[in-house]
Amino acid sequence: MAVRRRLQRQRRRRNRVPRRFNDRSNPLETLNEAEVFERYRFVPETIMFLVSLMQDRLTYHSHRNNPLTPLYQVLVALRYFATGSFYITIGDTLLVSKSSAGRAVRQVTDLLCHHVKEFIRLPGRDEISGIKNNFHKLAGFPGVIGCVDGTMIKIVSPSENEADYLCRKGFYALNVQMTCDPQFRVLDVVAKWPGSVHDARIFRESNLCTLMEEGHLSGFLLGDSGYGLKPYLLTPYIAEDAPGNRRYNAAHCRTRVTIEQTFGILKKRFHALHCGLRTKPERACRIVTSCAILHNIGIQRRDILRDSDLTNAVDVAVDVHVRVPEDAVGRTVRDHVRDTYFL
């Protein structure tokens, strides 16, 4: 019996068609700029910038087993972020094995996360006034330095603490908090919480909340009614029985929609965030952070989605009315803003 199985294995090995990966061409040389952007979500110049950013850590010092070049590893990762496809599908597209595709995505993701403080940062003192002015141009809301909200990123059912990741929408997810400026640049990202955790708790335990509490940032954050009203975090009025309340809420909504648009742009550009991540939660958190970094790099280099791609690029959250305690000082500050600017 053992001899028969051994002969069968030998026969399968003889009949196996070897996969050859040594004839890979450079897609940046065979595709035009629009085709490269459509497939990898960046133009060739930005892709080469990403390669230079990580080249030292992606270079193999041995040529055994035909290793992937830094460029190819970056292309594999960008293709995964752009499509959310299976590793074997991406491997077949770019003539790499399934294991090599997965390894490239992990390595590029980890290296991008090493640069998080370089590309995702809160505004400095010299930048705050410009951000306030740009937010004010949107709807006349004064003193805004950022809009904050959470978005659900689908994941597969985790093997541990499964119930914690089941979100209010009925699927397994991460609840990712982001803060943005008027140009849709991500100023802060918190990607570590399960989908069942409420937005208010994520903000309360974030570094951003601590900085605002201690007065290191001067200005207001805008959040929806799922957040607790604070002197530095302004939420809409529940009751719109007064004209001032309605005008305040209208300006608040037109300003705060920038964070919904930021989520929409992110998920439009990196479809993996929209269709869901088939990885463990810890790895999914790093992928989300990597996509936020790539999003900011695109804005910094003016390599952004075309206007035609931005149609309906708004990620609107489903309103769930949970009564969050309001701060008395926060009510005073909000009433002052309403009475000064919207009466």
How many extended strands?
5
Question: Average pLDDT value?
Answer: 90
**Which secondary-structure class do the elements indicate?**
alpha/beta
What shape does the CA trace take? elongated
The fraction of residues assigned to DSSP E strands is 5-15%
- Which strand order does the major sheet show? 3-2-1-4-5
Detailed description of the structure:
The protein is built from 15 helices and five strands. It has helices at residues 2-15, 27-30, 33-40, 44-58, 70-83, 87-94, 98-113, 116-119, 125-139, 199-204, 207-213, 243-269, 271-275, 281-300, 328-341, and strands spanning 144-154, 173-180, 186-194, 220-222, 233-234. The chain has a five-stranded mixed sheet with strand order 3-2-1-4-5. A hairpin with a 5-residue loop joins strand 2 and strand 3 (186-194). The protein is elongated, with a radius of gyration of 24 Å.
Describe this structure in a few short sentences.
52% of the residues lie in helices and 10% in strands. It is an alpha/beta fold. It is built from 15 helices and 5 strands.
List keywords for this structure.
343 residues, 5-stranded mixed sheet, 10% strand, elongated, alpha/beta
